[in-house]
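Bug report (template v2)

What were you trying to do?
Predict the complex of my protein with adenosine-5'-diphosphate.

What happened?
Run completed; filing so the output is reviewed.

Input:
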Amino acid sequence: MAKDSLEKDTSEKTGNITSRQPVIGGNDLKEERNRDAALRPKYLSEVIGQKAVTKRLGIAVKACKKRKEPLGHILFDGPPGLGKTTFATVLPNELGTSIQLTSGPALSKPADLLPFLTNVEENSILFIDEIHRLPRVVEEFIYPAMEDFRIDIVLGEGLSARTISMNLKPFTLIGATTRSGMLSSPMRDRFKMHEHLDFYTIDELSQMIKINAKKLQTPISDDAARELACRSRGTPRIANSRLWWVRNYADSEANSSIDLKIAQEALQMAEVSEDGLDKQDRRYLEVLIQVFGGGPTGVEAIAATMNLPADTLSDEIELYLLREQFIIRSPRGRVATERGFSLFNKKPPKNGGLTNSGLFGSE
Ligand code: ADP
């Protein structure tokens, strides 16, 4: 898949946020934007799964409404497409307040953040996606804003430079990250709540697909919704993407309603296997098994062979392959499991990575 087609343009948020997301079933960027906007839940009661997170946020919302105070800064972390932006955009609706959206890569210097901070309304929300990509200088600029709702602006240069402090309206910063480990600890410590989002169950994704099919006015059978859910890598964004594609297929090739046969035909055409793996997942496993003999091998070597950034592999491909035990991480690198090898009708080599007990463990 071309690098460009992996870029999810979320420009409706700020005009310049980009994050790397897989595009499935031939969807283009505009289509993905429209789909996300049309299908995103608006209130906590519409959010599916992530029960504990939803419950905690509900309590925080209730308490802050009672006290008429800002919510308190929240950090969401988890793989792409699991609902970090969704939670962030649901909260202002619950609170009856506004939200401004931007992202780490869009804020290269403190001056880029200034308009967002000076525009905050009382108790409103500022959402920073990919917050782990904030430059250190911007991070340091934001600390007094998070702690005391104040910013320090340096005017002039050299000996004539002076610092003026400016008070801000109380607000809530919501950060989202796929890599919480890359956040500096001073930044992490300034968030009052830290919520981790995990992959969704098949039942949760089935429920989501049925609700979203209804929103799209497309009839779908229970078994077809389940089939889509099983092939969505535990990820709502991918479930939506599969549903969008299957709906196009049903409109074009059938009577606009989705049954199991239509779902299977459409997914086969999009090259989504029964395991829910897509082309990139299979290519990863192919490289690990066919090129590197099943490992152990470093993620950089696999990334170089696939011509993709190592970050894309760690953030988007590996987490699901690890969860489904197609691969394991060992101190010496990635190793394909028996399940991974079985996709290629192969068995792990006798003295391969997995038979060496020393390889097991986490990096
Ligand atoms: P992230 O910000 O983590 O990359 P998003 O919040 O953009 O993910 O989620 C992608 C899409 O998946 C959303 O537009 C929404 O339609 C759907 N989605 C995500 N989480 C949920 C959820 N818990 N319930 C219902 N739909 C969800």
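What did the reviewer find?
Residues 36, 39-41, 47-50, 80-86, 176, 208, 236-237, 240 surround adenosine-5'-diphosphate (CB under 6 Å). The CA atoms of residues 8 and 60 lie 31 Å apart.
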